Request: fold
Amino acid sequence: MCCVVSLKLCRSGRLDHTEFKACLRALGFDLPVPAEGEPDPVFEAILDSVDFDRDGFVRLEEYMQFMISRTTENVASTDELTEAFRALTDGEDKPYITASELYAAMPPDQAKYCIDRMEKYPDVPGALDYRNFTRTVFQPNTSLSSSFT
Reply:
């Protein structure tokens, strides 16, 4: 089911709430199954954090922000997130990361999300500036910061 839902998300750029819930279950999220017509406070809380405009759909960007926020929910500061990216750089202490390092360490959709939002690191072909990206994550009033804090 999740493969079908993921394919729909990639093609249409959005999932309705029922499809999103099915995808979460397929990914291993432990969601209760309320009786028909009963409220679902656990899923509603998730929707509060992912479908901000409550338009009935989870857009691809909202989905990606949600999944990355789940991956980094224990990261509390710029320093911690910077250290997490630095650890992915093959043990080197370099101020950039490559797409191949991100793809090796993250699910492809999350790696692509980061790659699409990271600036190119100057004078190093194929390098991405993870330090500037982490600062952006923790700045108030950015689309990234709402998904990480």
